[in-house]
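pinned: reference chain
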Amino acid sequence: MSFLSVTNVTVRYGRLTALRHANFKMAAGETLFVTGPNGAGKSTLLKAIAGVVTPVEGQIQLAGQVISGTVPEDIARRGFSMVPEGRHVFGTLTIEENLRLGAGMRADKDAVAADLAGCYEVFPMLRERRDAPAAVLSGGQQQMLVIARALMTGPQLIAIDEPSLGLAPKIIDQVYDVLLRLRDERGLTLLIVEQSSTRALLTGGRMLLMRSGEIVMEGDARELLRGDALKQAYFG
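pinned: its structure tokens
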């Protein structure tokens, strides 16, 4: 059984069709990149999975349960966490307060405490500055914070929208090192939106190419990037 299944999903904003008949599946523990130009429907796809927008057609299943049409809080309780584009830290709150916000829906205090300790182990910089306001962090440090905050929800699947946006190449490498280590150590499933296909080439895994609201190509990232078919599909 697929861990995430998106079947014939269409999303409209008024008369604009932002996502059209999207179909794909993910296995547990898989890394899937979604790439494509601006306006391709990548962020809308993530929002549909998260329950932020409701499809007008199609169905989304997570771990065998239908989640399309469900409120975001219920989807989060079923193991889905999204890191939105632009990081969205709460600058006036401390780093630890930001992290604890991720566990706001959880009642298992002992497990929350263990997860907080685990986040500090993975991100020692956050532990060292946990009482400082999040606004003092650099862009790369804020990206680490929102990934750690997503971990505090106790997820099985993390969707990340443009984790490389606005970051220097060295910092991007650090972000991906952490993501892939978390995937391997915790068995996380990763759904990553990146406008550029370069990171998919470097990281490997499966990739979807979107254009004009549709998935126009799917396959192994490195295989797709070897030929001209991806370039032709990207630019039409």
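why pinned: Residues 4-87+155-235 form a domain with the Rossmann fold fold (CATH 3.40.50.300). The CA atoms of residues 7 and 23 lie 5 Å apart.
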